[in-house]
Write a structure and sequence with these properties.
Elements lengths: L1 H23 L3 E9 L10 H10 L4 E5 L2 E5 L7 H4 L3 E9 L2 E8 L8
Parallel strand pairs: 3-5
Antiparallel strand pairs: 1-2, 1-4, 2-3, 4-5
Length: 113
Amino acid sequence: MKWTVRVGMAAVMVGALVTAMPVLAAPTTLTGKISDAMCAGKHNGDAKACVAKCIKGGDKYVLVVDTKVYKISNQKFADLAKFAGTDAVVTGEVKDDTITVSKMAAPKPPKTK
């Protein structure tokens, strides 16, 4: 009898842990360019002005890291317009090719000797 109770309790604990895993997942930090979906980081002329024009025309913000383009799920995040067309360090939850941004900052300049 004691053995079955222990096995049952272990099963409940494992189930609770597996259910809580997405909540416990650590946010991911990526460094890339804030762009628009149409241009995906390839702009003619002033990148900031290009992104602003595309967003005003109905396009969506994206984060371009090397050649990978991440959709941004929370398009109304406050700092998106501030970093449009420039590099940013973006922290958030990544699922497939989409990031939900929780924090955004300017990259730190390289250290000089």
